[in-house]
């Protein structure tokens, strides 16, 4: 079935139902279901609850995650219409994990910003960003809805960014994220961890993201030393 998908189908094609596939290939529904789960794990298809199973877009138009980037700019360069939906903007206290990763005191006030990134109305990524409240104490939701976060950090709060470190991990979608990304629970995703430092080497942003594996890619370049 994977060869048929790769050579005969195009992105967005809807596959027959489990019942139709079962009858067509003389297989049990359980076997068909397991086969579809395997195709989803390979990134060949995407299961959209309530709609069906669709062929993934595995073209070169996948977003390159090699470097820190602007989601909005990247999507526009690819000819796609980007959209950011703020799902949550709230104050919270740093727990032990956040305190350790952000270099702040346990219980220090943080801003939490949860955003859904979409392109052409396709959910692409869920981002949870944490900012030290003391550096952005006047930050309000309307500003986040008007400007990119990095522009706010640098231009509105004069926190010049020195470097943003990113790590990537292969993972599977947890229920809440799967629902937001419109993929099956347990589908392959990329977990991203970004830590952003200002010129004084202070952490001004810590972001945990979950990206659809069928919509993103990353490259690694190895240069041989002569």
Mean pLDDT: 82
Order of helices and strands, N to C? HHHEEEHEHEEHHEHEEE
Helix/strand class: alpha+beta
End-to-end C-alpha gap: 45 Å
What is the tally of beta strands? Answer: 10
Strand order, biggest sheet?
4-5-6-9-8-7
Shape: elongated
Helix content: 25-40%
Rg for CA atoms = 20 Å
What amount of the residues lies in strands? Answer: 25-35%
Q: How many DSSP H or I helices? A: 8
Contiguous low-pLDDT stretches (5 residues minimum) are: 59-68
Largest sheet: 6 strands, antiparallel
List the helices and strands and how they pair.
Layout: H1 2-8, H2 18-25, H3 29-41, E1 45-48, E2 52-55, E3 63-64, H4 71-77, E4 82-93, H5 96-102, E5 109-119, E6 122-132, H6 141-146, H7 149-156, E7 161-172, H8 175-181, E8 188-198, E9 203-212, E10 216-217
Parallel strand pairs: 3-10
Antiparallel strand pairs: 1-2, 4-5, 5-6, 6-9, 7-8, 8-9
